[in-house]
Design a protein that fits this description.
By secondary structure, the chain is an alpha+beta fold. The chain has 13 helices and ten strands. Strands 6-5-4-3-7 form a five-stranded antiparallel beta sheet, sandwiched between helices. It has a three-stranded antiparallel beta sheet with strand order 9-8-10.
Length: 332
């Protein structure tokens, strides 16, 4: 809608100062000609906006002009107050700030929207931390990482990799921080190549008195998408066939749905909720390595591995080692 676009132009100019017509057109997905027509419409409505043509030109508001209009719709107001748990803000030292900011936003909302926004904040909550898999606390100060991100400084990092436990040192050009499933990741370039680093594997971090050297036109979201897809596409060559008792099927699917070959069918999920009667359900899974599949032992006799034989043998060894440990009577 044109009114929404005019408001978006106004808010972008307030936030960023002078902006080229091409950038506005790209952000709002319209033509440059449409942007100039919108600027004329804003000017006719009394907004002190002007355009400078030429190589270094752009569109801007007269200095000192501000508007208090939020332009929020009812759905947008509710969306602002559907928040993740406070832990992410607390990790960054912003716990009190988020509460204060939301109170100010609430006060600025149009009166008819405040009730719905307040209700959303009390009825909906998003907790990004997975059950029973909370990350270890960061061993470095996240404030140093923030300082590098916000002040566009390079970072020097000593890091212990999870794949081989090797400690390596890096000089990095950071793009930003990402919280995923309760774990904080630093997203950065190393010699022009994108990498990510978990904060709980960092051994030391320090600012470098050099400006960052990021790739032109590349933002945090772009780099994170590349890295996320890289992890999601890690091959899982170990094929495993299991027979799962219906009494644990629902819990099994919650833990291993990502490992299934194909999504869990609606029929299987319905059977899981139906109870423990009936024959076991046979499922096919994929794991990146045989050792990763050994976690199936936690389900005990409720989950039987049918294939491969190597995994069955590995689970037998694990079970025998556990039996031997407790047969020794330690601590008795």
């Amino acid at each position: 809608m044109k009114s929404d676009r005019l408001l978006s132009i106004l808010l972008l100019l307030q936030t960023h100062g002078q902006v080229s017509a091409g950038e506005l057109a790209s952000r709002l997905e319209v033509s440059v000609r449409t942007i100039y027509r919108d600027v004329e419409a804003l000017s006719a409505a009394g907004v002190p906006v002007y355009a400078e043509r030429g190589r270094n030109g752009g569109i801007a508001l007269l200095p000192g002009y501000r508007t208090d209009v939020t332009g929020l719709t009812a759905d947008e107001a509710r969306a602002l107050f559907v928040l993740v748990t406070e832990q992410a803000h607390a990790d960054l030292g912003l716990g009190p700030a988020i509460g204060s900011a939301l109170r100010k936003v609430m006060a600025a909302l149009p009166a008819p929207f405040r009730g719905d926004a307040d209700l959303a904040s009390r009825r909906i909550m998003i907790d990004p931390v997975r059950w029973r898999s909370s990350p270890r606390p960061s061993t470095v100060d996240l404030g140093v990482l923030q300082a590098a991100v916000f002040n566009d400084r390079r970072l020097r990092l000593r890091y212990r990799h999870g794949r081989d436990a090797q400690v390596r040192s890096y000089t990095l050009d950071p793009y930003g921080l990402v919280s995923k499933a309760g774990a904080w990741y630093l997203v950065a370039d190393h010699r022009g190549q994108p990498m990510m680093f978990r904060s709980d594997r960092m051994l030391s971090v320090s600012l470098v008195d050099e400006p960052v050297s990021r790739r032109d036109g590349v933002e945090l979201a772009d780099v994170w998408e590349v890295l996320r897809q890289r992890v999601d596409r890690i091959p899982a060559p170990v094929r495993v066939i299991v027979r799962v008792q219906r009494s644990v099927l629902a819990r099994f699917l919650r833990y291993h749905e990502a490992d299934l070959v194909g999504p869990a069918s609606a029929l299987t999920e319905a059977e899981a909720e139906a109870g423990s009667e009936g024959e076991p359900v046979e499922l096919e899974l994929r794991f990146p390595a045989l050792r990763a599949a050994e976690q199936l032992l936690v389900f005990g006799p409720a989950v039987e591995v049918m294939e491969p034989a190597e995994l069955r043998e590995a689970l037998v060894r694990r079970a025998q080692e556990t039996i031997a440990l407790y047969a020794e009577g330690r601590g008795v």
